[in-house]
Amino acid sequence: APGLYGLTLARGTESYPWTHKVLNHTFNRDNLTNLISYQWGSLSTVYHQNQDTLDLSVTVQNTFNTTITSMSWFLFGGLDSCGRWDFGGCNETASGCSSVRSSGVSPCRGSWLRPQSAGAPRCSMSVPQVLVADWGSGAVVATTPSNAVVNGTLAFPWIAGGFRLELSLVDIAPGTSAHFPVSLRFAPGTDTSGGPERLLGLANDTFENYRRERPITVAWSDRRPIGALFPSDCGASCNCKTYSPADCPNPRGWNFLPGKEAAFNVTSPAGVKAFQHAARDYVNNSIQYCKYYLGGPKGDGPAACQGIIIWSLAGQQYPQTTSWVGDPRLLHTLAPEVDGVADELFGMIRSSGMQCGMSLRPQAFTQNPAWNSSLSPMQRPFKYYQHFLARADNTSDTDAIAALLIAKAGYAYKRWGCTLYYVDTTVDEHGRVLDPDVFAQVHAALPHCLFFPEESSFADYSSVTPLQDDWGGNPLGTSLPVEFTYGRAAFSFELMQFTPGGGSPNEKLYLNQTLIDSWVPLVSRGDTLLVDAWYNSSVNVFVKRVYETAAQRSVQPMHTSDSRGPPAGIILSSSLGEAQS
């Protein structure tokens, strides 16, 4: 029988715990209804079995004189399972959103944490409500096919070596009720037959309903690598408050100035000329490398870059919290040496047949009101800071953030034809991921552009391509829940945070076929990998081999059914079609 274990009621602006004492408990065997009465109201569960499916209709009635701010109870317990896939339950914390799914530590199974099996999206309440508990010989899929979870969520929490299915609701007003349908689908576990795909397939109706409510709008068929340029560093040469040419000849930390040119003050006429000459060489060399090393002698191999993104276009004159600037509209003011040559640099990239792009930020680059030029350089703060756009209630201003990003990207699109945008720090000032409606608005305004947010939620896959940070070199990729929802039309942008050549002298990891094989499924299904565009790093050697191996094997991506949205028509080689326009 269901068991209540958490209840809080409203008292003004505060909440306080309330009694769990049961006043009456009945079970009607004729209509299979379990009814529990409490001082504050009642909890009823109606059961309906159809072969291997058990549907539960849960209703909470609040007959008290105050709002139930939160309540939690378990629908059943005692499930002896060490394997869980939690795609719906999340914990919102002050520091952001953290998943509550099992870590997969022994003796629990961990295979579903890998991209080629399942994985889990970044935490978000706006996800298909699907949870799977697998104990090897058997499994149960818990789901709410309607995804009607405005004030509730499902979770399989860890309880004494097993799992129990929990349901949590919030904000039930006096005299009202909350209804929550739950469907339990039982099946053999992964020890018996099949893998996670078979079990997730039991919730196809949930994924289909989610896709109907939030259809995918991304239509980007080119999945070849994207080159990244990082032309500045925030080291000893930046973070300079004096702005004196003697103290800061290179205040924005440009790192590509060769030989004697590096000694020039880049704010002087001679320094600007030297900077712009070096910038042309820097971009031209990167174009040649991305096309004719990664793409082979003809530039049409599987690993030829589809485009190049320039991070930190305005340099890094300010501390990490402020850089990157992420606003191309301010280039003339903040980095005039770049502004004078930017048209030519982006034109070079586009003339090569590649897309161009840059990094943006969803914050407003704002002059610090405490900055005072009359103060000595070391007494005054930095002149600018990144302002988080928020409403009066201290929550993110979704519409204002979307409008700001549209203005920034729209400027770059109109002036330079840029279509690729990495968006840095896509959280509010408390670390919470931005509402997915931000990028839904941005993509609707700029449908020919592709956005890669640093932090994201499941729902963001409908309109953007989320970044995956692969710390340690472990492939992440697009999770199975996203795959089941949107098919190959949705994909991830993989940023590898390791150096495959960093092992022992006798072990060149970038030549390790086992490691290459672990990444091939990502490329085969259509995920895009990032490469260093300015030099031949060992990461690039590795990525090149991954793309070439995937092309040689002609591996068919998983789940290509047209019912999951528009077919991607994935491009793994430029000989198969032109870059996206």
Structure description:
The structure is a single chain. With 581 residues, this protein is of the alpha/beta class. It is built from ten helices and 26 strands. It has helices at 196-200, 204-213, 269-293, 331-334, 336-351, 398-416, 437-445, 480-486, 513-525, 538-553; strands at 3-11, 14-17, 22-28, 33-38, 41-50, 53-62, 68-79, 83-86, 90-93, 96-99, 130-134, 138-143, 152-155, 158-159, 162-172, 177-188, 226-229, 307-310, 355-360, 364-367, 384-387, 420-423, 450-453, 467-471, 493-497, 528-532. An eight-stranded antiparallel beta sheet has the order 3-4-5-6-16-12-11-8, with no helix packed on it. An eight-stranded parallel beta sheet has the order 23-22-19-18-17-26-25-24. Strand 11 (130-134) and strand 12 (138-143) form a beta hairpin. Helix 2 packs across helix 8 (480-486), helix 6 runs parallel beside helix 7 (437-445) and helix 9 packs across helix 10 (538-553). It is globular. The model is unreliable at 81-125, 501-505 and 556-581 (pLDDT under 50).
Topology:
Layout: E1 3-11, E2 14-17, E3 22-28, E4 33-38, E5 41-50, E6 53-62, E7 68-79, E8 83-86, E9 90-93, E10 96-99, E11 130-134, E12 138-143, E13 152-155, E14 158-159, E15 162-172, E16 177-188, H1 196-200, H2 204-213, E17 226-229, H3 269-293, E18 307-310, H4 331-334, H5 336-351, E19 355-360, E20 364-367, E21 384-387, H6 398-416, E22 420-423, H7 437-445, E23 450-453, E24 467-471, H8 480-486, E25 493-497, H9 513-525, E26 528-532, H10 538-553
Parallel strand pairs: 17-18, 17-26, 18-19, 19-22, 22-23, 24-25, 25-26
Antiparallel strand pairs: 1-2, 1-7, 3-4, 4-5, 5-6, 6-16, 7-15, 8-11, 9-10, 11-12, 12-16, 13-15, 14-15, 20-21
Helix pairs in contact: 2-8, 3-5, 6-7, 9-10
